[in-house]
Design goal:
It contains six helices and no strands. It is mainly alpha-helical. It has one domain. Helix 2 packs antiparallel against helix 3. The protein is elongated and about 45 Å long. It starts with a helix and ends in a 13-residue tail after the last helix.
Length: about 140
């Protein structure tokens, strides 16, 4: 289970960094000096500007949260599993790689071993010694 969570953490870091590069590219093309100045669409600029700004902020927040969840999954922190479960809902709509990561998050954190990772209080049973727990 530890190896699978670390692979999942690496996938979250990779997707978050790719989303960050997409954010920087879009920001550079449409908001900076990289943009094509020959395209003139003055009547559509306010709508595209506001919608594009919100999309960029959502993309930046999503990529930052993905990197944070990935680092937490590499360290096997319980809070990162909860964050990864929240992010997997958004990942399901990003075809094809986000869907793969979202489904693998659901399939790895919802079974019994995954729930014991998400809920650390459920990990400790009165009859088990935490030093001999081989589940994680």
């Amino acid at each position: 289970m530890k190896i699978w969570l670390r692979i999942l953490g690496g996938a979250y870091i990779l997707m978050g960094s790719l989303n960050s590069f997409v954010f920087l590219f879009i920001l550079g093309v449409y908001g900076g000096k990289w943009g094509i100045e020959a395209i003139r669409a003055e009547e559509y600029v306010p709508v595209i500007g506001y919608l594009g700004g919100w999309v960029l902020y959502v993309l930046l927040g999503f990529s930052g949260a993905s990197i944070l969840a990935g680092v937490g999954l590499l360290k096997l922190s319980a809070w990162s599993g909860r964050l990864a479960m929240l992010l997997c809902v958004g990942n399901l709509f990003i075809l094809p790689f986000g869907t793969i990561i979202g489904l693998s998050t659901i399939l790895s954190l919802l079974p019994k071993q995954g729930r014991s990772f998400l809920l650390p209080a459920a990990r400790k049973s009165p009859n088990s010694n935490p030093s001999t727990n081989k589940d994680l």
